[in-house]
């Protein structure tokens, strides 16, 4: 039986919101129903728990229940990324280049950390930890870039991109 | 509500600009305008009240103001009166050297209207102003088409990823409402397509 890693980025958890949000509950229910654990790179965890915006008033997403999800066991933090692994480094570089091209930005304005999902996917596949990876992100350029990067490496046919907003909408039958 | 005084003559471009400024600063007015613009059957005052859950007085005042200032028109001669929004497409460039003028269109007015009952959009306007929301909408349009990522938006607008992701999530429905058949990676058009 093949093993699959489900890697998600910050956009999926921001879009699913707080514990009061139907989308968060649908995501949790789906994870439990399918016995699925979403993996987030360390960088994504930092983005989700960033308090630098600290203000007296806060967005409903300012305190996301990511630690609760980790405690419940359906989200796990993955890291550190092994940048000395050439497949990891190449997948991240390729993804950054793809994002720069699709978004019409200079390559040097895309941070390597923006491709943390690609690095995580390459590392899990290369070390044989899993046979397949599914990435969840609302950032189409990033999702497509990861698929292109992993497919161009010698790890073809083992990566899938699911657009985060549509995924949550399908889980709840409720558009944003 | 303190609206601008309606003109005594047929509203010209300057009058309409002033009335659009009213819309941008008054979420309830923006909501009513958006409802008129989005409803195929021109609604009656009662239908506006029922659909938006607003007070009768607010509805009558707002509809009168919208018609007086040339943003809506009455489409029936007899009661119950029905109303229709008049499309807005206002180009704003304070400085003539500005390469891309802002286009104030129903999409921005819709976003402002939703701030009446969406605390994330309301807080975003508090923090970044109406101009900031207009910028965020440009990013949201690009994001829906896969032309920008949350991280890029966060860096370029000096937001946290959380703030960028939050407003992108809230604006998604608005973009899809007004651009139902957007073309992915469509590079056409030099203006900000708000």
UniProtKB/TrEMBL annotation, chain A:
Naturally occurring in which organism (per UniProt): Halocatena pleomorpha
What is the name listed in the Swiss-Prot or TrEMBL entry for this protein? Answer: Uncharacterized protein
UniProt cross-references to InterPro entries, sorted A to Z: PIN-containing (IPR058703)
Organism lineage string: Archaea, Methanobacteriati, Methanobacteriota, Stenosarchaea group, Halobacteria
Automatic annotation (TrEMBL), chain B:
Residues in Transcription regulator TrmB N-terminal domain copies: 30-88
Q: What is this protein called?
A: ArsR family transcriptional regulator
Q: Which residues form the DUF7437 domain?
A: 116-178
What InterPro entries does the record tag this protein with? DUF7437 (IPR055860), Tscrpt_reg_TrmB_N (IPR002831), WH-like_DNA-bd_sf (IPR036388), WH_DNA-bd_sf (IPR036390)
Q: Which domain of life is it from?
A: Archaea
């Amino acid at each position: 039986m093949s093993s699959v890693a489900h890697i998600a980025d910050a956009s999926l958890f921001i879009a699913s919101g707080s514990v009061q949000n139907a989308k968060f509950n649908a995501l949790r229910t789906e994870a439990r129903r399918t016995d699925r654990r979403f993996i987030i790179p360390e960088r994504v965890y930092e983005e989700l728990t960033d308090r630098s915006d600290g203000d007296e008033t806060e967005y409903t997403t300012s305190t996301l229940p990511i630690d609760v999800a980790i405690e419940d066991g359906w989200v796990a933090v993955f890291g550190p990324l092994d940048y000395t692994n050439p497949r990891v480094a190449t997948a991240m570089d390729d993804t950054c280049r793809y994002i720069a091209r699709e978004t019409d930005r200079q390559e040097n304005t895309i941070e390597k950390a923006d491709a943390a999902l690609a690095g995580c996917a390459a590392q899990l596949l290369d070390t044989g930890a899993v046979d397949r990876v599914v990435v969840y992100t609302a950032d189409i350029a990033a999702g497509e870039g990861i698929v292109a990067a992993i497919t161009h490496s010698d790890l073809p046919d083992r990566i899938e991109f699911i657009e985060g907003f549509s995924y949550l909408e399908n889980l709840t039958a409720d558009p944003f | 509500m303190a609206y601008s005084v309606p003109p005594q003559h047929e509203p010209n471009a300057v009058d309409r600009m002033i009335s659009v400024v009213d819309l941008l600063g008054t979420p309830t007015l923006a909501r009513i305008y958006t409802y008129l613009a989005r409803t195929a059957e021109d609604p009656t005052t009662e239908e506006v009240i029922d659909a938006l859950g607003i007070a009768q007085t607010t509805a009558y005042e707002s509809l009168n103001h919208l018609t007086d200032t040339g943003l809506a028109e009455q489409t029936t001669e007899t009661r119950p009166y029905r109303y229709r929004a008049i499309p807005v497409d206002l180009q704003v460039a304070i400085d003539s050297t500005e390469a891309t003028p802002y286009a104030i269109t129903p999409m921005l007015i819709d976003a402002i209207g939703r701030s009446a009952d969406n605390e994330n959009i309301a807080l975003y306007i508090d923090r970044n102003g109406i101009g900031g929301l207009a910028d965020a909408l440009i990013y949201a349009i690009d994001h829906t088409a896969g032309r920008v990522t949350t991280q890029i938006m966060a860096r370029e607008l000096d937001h946290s990823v959380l703030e960028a992701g939050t407003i992108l999530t809230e604006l998604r429905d608005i973009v899809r409402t007004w651009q139902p058949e957007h073309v992915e990676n469509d590079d056409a058009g030099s203006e900000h397509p708000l």
